[in-house]
Amino acid sequence: MNKELLLILGLALGTATGCAVFEGQSTAGEYVDDKSISTQVKAMFAKDPTVSAMKIEVESLRGEVQLSGFAKSDTEKERAEEIARSVRGVRDVQNDIIVRS
Questions:
Q1: Percentage of the chain with pLDDT > 90?
Q2: 91 secondary structure, DSSP code
Q3: Where in the sequence is the domain holding 50, given as residue range(s)?
Q4: CA atoms within 13 Å, Cβ hemisphere of 27
């Protein structure tokens, strides 16, 4: 029953966003997983005193997470990557955060 519910949710999200799946793009299930990963990473940023959830963007595609935006220090940049890597389903992290003092 859970698989059916996830499939319906995935199809509904794909339809609601006008998402069409073409060769090389994510399936509806992967799309839902990626949205969940991005949401979890951002939520963990919000809880962490070192990382500014408002200045760092998170995008996921097939379990690969890309971080972008600005950090105040190398420590913040490194912590953001550490947090992203700790989320279940993350296969790799590309850290494109720019440090600005």
A1: 65
A2: -
A3: 2-99
A4: 5
Which CATH number does the domain housing residue 66 bear? 3.30.1340.30
Reduce the DSSP state of residue 90 to 3 states and report it: coil
3-state SS, residue 41: helix
At 14, is the pLDDT very low, low, confident or very high (cuts 50, 70, 90)? Answer: low
What is the number of domains present in the chain?
1
What DSSP letter does each residue of 2-37 carry, written as one string?
Answer: HHHHHHHHHHHHHHHTT----TTSPPHHHHHHHHHH
Average pLDDT over residues 23-45: 79
Taking the CA atoms of residue 39, residue 70, residue 84 and residue 41 in that order, the dihedral angle to the nearest 10 degrees is -20
Contacts of 5 (CB under 8 A, 6+ apart): none
Answer whether 0.85 is exceeded by the pTM: no
Higher pLDDT, 85 or 13: 85
The identity of residue 57, as a single letter, is E
